UniProtKB/TrEMBL annotation:
InterPro entries: GroES-like_sf, Lipid_raft_assoc_Zn_ADH, NAD(P)-bd_dom_sf, Quin_OxRdtase/zeta-crystal_CS. SUPFAM superfamilies: GroES-like (SSF50129), NAD(P)-binding Rossmann-fold domains (SSF51735). It comes from Sphaeroforma arctica JP610. This is Enoyl reductase (ER) domain-containing protein. GO terms for molecular function: oxidoreductase activity; zinc ion binding. Transmembrane segments: none annotated. It comes from the Eukaryota.
Length: 124
């Protein structure tokens, strides 16, 4: 697997972002492998602290879905655009709703049966 969640077991001497015992989520840079290994070295820039409100299973789904959403926002959206998100309650859709709003979309609409969820994420 390529997206992982785990506990930091060791850090190098110059590390300031994480400490031993931190729970982090990470995405691998180029080739997704060794995600099911007991230990895995991960570059700091590819990792973030696990959200405290997410379980490990939920958190390990974040790196790829958030990255996919961010690519779409960076390539296709400009501040003030109106954005329609198909499947706003799904993984990528969930991230798109939040990122579009944060990056200045004038209106964000989402298709979903989970209306209250996407409204809570920022959909208009």
């Amino acid at each position: 697997g390529g997206d992982v969640c785990g506990i930091v077991a060791r850090v190098n001497d110059t590390e300031t972002k994480f400490k031993v015992g931190d729970c982090v989520v990470a995405q691998f840079d180029t080739v997704p492998f060794d995600g099911i290994a007991e230990y895995r070295t991960v570059q700091t820039y590819l990792a973030e602290l696990k959200p405290v409100t997410a379980t490990s299973a939920e958190a390990c789904t974040l790196p790829t879905t958030a990255k996919a959403a961010m690519i779409g926002i960076e390539r296709y959206m400009k501040k003030g655009d109106r954005v329609l998100v198909l499947g706003g309650a799904g993984g990528v859709g969930n991230a798109l709703v939040q990122l579009a709003k944060a990056y200045g979309a004038s209106h964000v609409a989402a298709t979903t049966t989970a209306f209250d969820l996407v409204k809570g994420l920022g959909a208009d």
